């Protein structure tokens, strides 16, 4: 720890530091990050302990550029109306479903009432509100619901959405809808370290199968947005006897970024 030095950050167009907390001004988005935490957002997990202890590594310019490249540069892919006042918190930068993909899923899930069980900052919710009559947008984190509400307003669809703060596992038995969309947390960037990610690793300790079971209490029409390395065999088994699943690969910039499993009548094939 001793050789780790604190470093004064140089203000730049991209970000600037103040005394204890820095505000990273990303256009209309203000991220609050601990002092001099200029590391790659991707590397945040690695330095979490150091941040807690107040010891921060030197910034590597390359990593700073990586944030710019990886997240900021893709802001319009996340939200085409980004400049009109979209708000995101740290987690949302890497967990929002990019608009093009969210739009595609929303077209496939067209119905009267849809539940977005893990609404986050509203990437999917906003697009469902454009293809469905009504959206029930749930998130356990009240801050995410604030973000989703703000972002839905930017797209002019807030009036079509009912925002609920709560745990989907608890709320599911009380809800009714035509389609349920599941985009649970993938457990941080480490999911990518496994060649095949098993369903039980999703939303542990419940597990991804239990989540599907909860959703089935509402409807059999389910779309399940999952990491690209998800165990496809398990998704097929989870369909149940004589039932099918369609697993779609979702691409952005020619790179596969996720898989969506469709159950029930959402299948195209
Ligand atoms: C991957 S993000 C969803 C991103 C969203 N699809 C979007 O495009 O903005 C997962 C979200 O699930 C929420 N969450 C985690 N556990 C939950 C639970 N038990 N019930 C409801 N929401 C939960 C998290 O707060 C997080 O916002």
From TrEMBL:
Family assignment from sequence similarity: Belongs to the methyltransferase superfamily. Trimethylguanosine synthase family.
InterPro entries in alphabetical order: RNA_cap_Gua-N2-MeTrfase, SAM-dependent_MTases_sf
Catalytic activity annotation: a 5'-end (N(2),N(7)-dimethyl 5'-triphosphoguanosine)-ribonucleoside in snoRNA + S-adenosyl-L-methionine = a 5'-end (N(2),N(2),N(7)-trimethyl 5'-triphosphoguanosine)-ribonucleoside in snoRNA + S-adenosyl-L-homocysteine + H(+); a 5'-end (N(7)-methyl 5'-triphosphoguanosine)-ribonucleoside in snRNA + S-adenosyl-L-methionine = a 5'-end (N(2),N(7)-dimethyl 5'-triphosphoguanosine)-ribonucleoside in snRNA + S-adenosyl-L-homocysteine + H(+); a 5'-end (N(7)-methyl 5'-triphosphoguanosine)-ribonucleoside in snoRNA + S-adenosyl-L-methionine = a 5'-end (N(2),N(7)-dimethyl 5'-triphosphoguanosine)-ribonucleoside in snoRNA + S-adenosyl-L-homocysteine + H(+); a 5'-end (N(2),N(7)-dimethyl 5'-triphosphoguanosine)-ribonucleoside in snRNA + S-adenosyl-L-methionine = a 5'-end (N(2),N(2),N(7)-trimethyl 5'-triphosphoguanosine)-ribonucleoside in snRNA + S-adenosyl-L-homocysteine + H(+)
Organism encoding this protein: Trichogramma brassicae
Main location group: cytoplasm
Subunit and interaction comment: May form homooligomers. Interacts with CREBBP/CBP, EED/WAIT1, EP300/P300, NCOA6/PRIP, PPARBP/PBP and SMN.
Keywords associated with the record: Cytoplasm, Methyltransferase, Nucleus, Phosphoprotein, S-adenosyl-L-methionine, Transcription, Transcription regulation, Transferase
Gene3D superfamilies to which the protein is assigned, alphabetical: Vaccinia Virus protein VP39
Cellular compartments annotated: Cytoplasm; Nucleus, Cajal body; Nucleus, Nucleolus
Protein name: Trimethylguanosine synthase
GO molecular function annotation: RNA cap trimethylguanosine synthase activity
Keyword Secreted listed: no
PANTHER family listed in its UniProt record: S-ADENOSYLMETHIONINE-DEPENDENT METHYLTRANSFERASE RELATED, TRIMETHYLGUANOSINE SYNTHASE
GO CC terms in record: Cajal body; cytoplasm; nucleolus
Pfam families named in the record: Methyltransf_15 (PF09445)
Keyword match Repeat: no
Known role: Catalyzes the 2 serial methylation steps for the conversion of the 7-monomethylguanosine (m(7)G) caps of snRNAs and snoRNAs to a 2,2,7-trimethylguanosine (m(2,2,7)G) cap structure. The enzyme is specific for guanine, and N7 methylation must precede N2 methylation. Hypermethylation of the m7G cap of U snRNAs leads to their concentration in nuclear foci, their colocalization with coilin and the formation of canonical Cajal bodies (CBs). Plays a role in transcriptional regulation.
């Amino acid at each position: 720890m001793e050789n780790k030095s604190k470093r004064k950050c140089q203000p730049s167009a991209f970000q600037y530091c103040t005394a204890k907390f820095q505000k990273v001004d990303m256009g209309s988005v203000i991220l609050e990050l601990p002092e001099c935490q200029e590391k790659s957002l991707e590397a945040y997990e690695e330095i979490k302990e150091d941040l807690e202890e107040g010891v921060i590594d030197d910034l590597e310019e390359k990593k700073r550029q990586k944030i710019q490249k990886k997240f900021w540069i893709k802001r319009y892919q996340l939200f085409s109306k980004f400049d009109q006042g979209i708000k995101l918190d740290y987690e949302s930068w890497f967990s929002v479903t990019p608009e093009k993909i969210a739009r595609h899923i929303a077209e496939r899930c067209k119905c009267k009432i849809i539940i977005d069980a893990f609404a986050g900052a509203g990437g999917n919710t906003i697009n469902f509100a454009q293809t469905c009559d009504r959206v029930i947008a749930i998130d356990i984190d009240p801050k995410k619901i604030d973000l989703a509400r703000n972002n839905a307003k930017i797209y002019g669809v807030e009036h079509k959405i009912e925002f609920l703060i709560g745990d989907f596992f608890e709320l599911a038995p009380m809800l009714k809808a035509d389609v349920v969309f599941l985009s649970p947390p993938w457990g941080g960037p480490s999911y990518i370290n496994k060649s095949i990610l098993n369903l039980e690793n999703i939303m542990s300790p419940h597990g991804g199968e239990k989540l599907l079971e909860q959703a089935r209490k509402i409807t059999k029409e389910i779309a399940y947005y999952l990491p690209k390395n998800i165990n496809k065999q398990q998704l097929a088994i989870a369909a149940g006897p004589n039932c099918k699943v369609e697993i779609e690969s979702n691409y952005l910039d020619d790179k596969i970024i996720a898989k969506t499993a469709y159950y029930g009548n959402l299948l195209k094939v």
